[in-house]
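For reproducibility, we list the full input for the zinc ion complex.
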Amino acid sequence: MINLDYFQNEIEKIDKSKPKYIDTPAFEMITYETNSNDLKNDIEHSLISKNFIEEFEEYIYTLLETTENQNLFLLNQNIETLKLENRHHCVFNIFDKNLLGSYYHNQNKIVYYDIVSLGHELLHAASTNNLSLPLCPQVYSGFQRNYRQHDIDIVRFKGLNEGYTELLSRKKFFNEDYNTPCYTANVYSLRLLDLLFEKNELETAYFNNCTEYVYKIFCKYANDDEFYWLNKYLDIFANSIAKKEEVEKVFNKLKEILKRTYNNEIEDNADNIIDEYYKNNPKMKVKKLY
Ligand SMILES: [Zn+2]
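The corresponding predicted structure, in tokenized form, follows.
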């Protein structure tokens, strides 16, 4: 197992946004250690005793087919106690028709109002490590960190996490169609950020709660302030409707950072991703800087 106390200290250092800690070992990619070389088989075995609906099982099998063993540790850990509740006809859904589903990490439970949300919620269940003790709530979910400090519940990197969760959901379950109505600005920002990483690197960091690694790679081309600035906007986009001026600002900043790689292919890919965003979001048409 990785040393989570050490990790916790490191993330608090990140939160304070003071000096650079890039060279400390915690900022390497660290994956959860497992004794099993075939977590896929273990998970399939656990599935036998569960009575999940067929559609949800299909999402799980697709996830197993498209995900490396090193990224299945938390799904294997959570699957046996994972609960699924259909609230399709629930009265709450009448008040908020836009609500599709949620994952409650405290109960390890997915509640869904629309079956289309199951892929996204499954990814939360497959990337959440609930480390809470009665007086010490502490949850790592993908890139997100929930913990309590001085009696205040703190949530960090929500926008980063929701954006990547939805990106991965569209990649794995929707044939890479990123034209999603959920967290759209976050998804496209994360697609741009992903250009800084090797193939599947960001995915491995996500399933192993390695937010520190995202920070490390980002800081090869940018600085602490830019990391905080980006996460501030990703949180704003995740918590409210993204304003077009703000989306444009974030895209421009990410393009500026991507230019520092001096890689033409990366720059071309970035332009295509941004064009795709504006094509799929016609109301969001704004001016662009080249
Ligand atoms: Zn989510």
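The first strand starts at residue 83 and ends at 86. The two ends are 46 Å apart (CA to CA). Both points were considered when choosing residues for closer inspection.
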